[in-house]
């Protein structure tokens, strides 16, 4: 029996495209959240070049610090339910804490 060329009325290519768009939206939301957290909780969130190195990312270890983009990448893994792929326990917890950190009511938007 041949596999169906469509899943839920969409081709596999359309499904992959949809998943990529969801991940891009999640990345943008995590970037915005990190900016808001840094603005309103300055003492709790390090500056762009003050993050500790991420053991899972060799370029971060070589540089001696993580970038905001790398931190956002870990937040996206937490947001999409793939936190177990972060092998560094400290960074798994840190990314989870950043992602679940509540923002003040006046900072929330409908976006």
Low-confidence stretches: none
Order of helices and strands: HHHH
Percentage of residues in strands: under 5%
Per DSSP, the total helix count is 4
Category from helices, strands and their pairing: mainly alpha
Distance between the termini: 44 Å
Helix percent reads 40-55%
Please tally the β strands and state the result.
Answer: 0
Topology:
Layout: H1 12-40, H2 58-63, H3 68-79, H4 89-100
Helix pairs in contact: 1-3, 3-4
Mind explaining what this structure looks like?
Helix content is 53%, strand content 0%. The chain has 111 residues and is mostly helical. α3 packs across α4. The radius of gyration is 17 Å and the shape is globular. The termini are far apart.
Quick recap:
With 111 residues, the chain is mainly α. It is built from four helices and no strands.
Notable characteristics:
single chain; mainly alpha; 4 helices; about 0% strand; about 110 residues
């Amino acid at each position: 029996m041949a596999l169906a060329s469509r899943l839920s009325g969409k081709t596999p290519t359309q499904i992959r495209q949809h998943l990529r768009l969801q991940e891009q939206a999640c990345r943008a939301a995590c970037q915005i959240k990190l900016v808001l957290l840094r603005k309103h909780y300055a003492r709790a969130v390090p500056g762009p070049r003050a993050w500790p190195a991420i053991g899972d990312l060799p370029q971060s270890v070589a540089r001696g610090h993580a970038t905001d983009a790398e931190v956002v990448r870990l937040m996206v893994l937490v947001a999409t339910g793939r936190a177990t792929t972060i092998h560094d326990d400290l960074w798994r917890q840190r990314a989870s804490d950043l992602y679940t950190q509540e923002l003040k009511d006046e900072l929330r938007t409908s976006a």
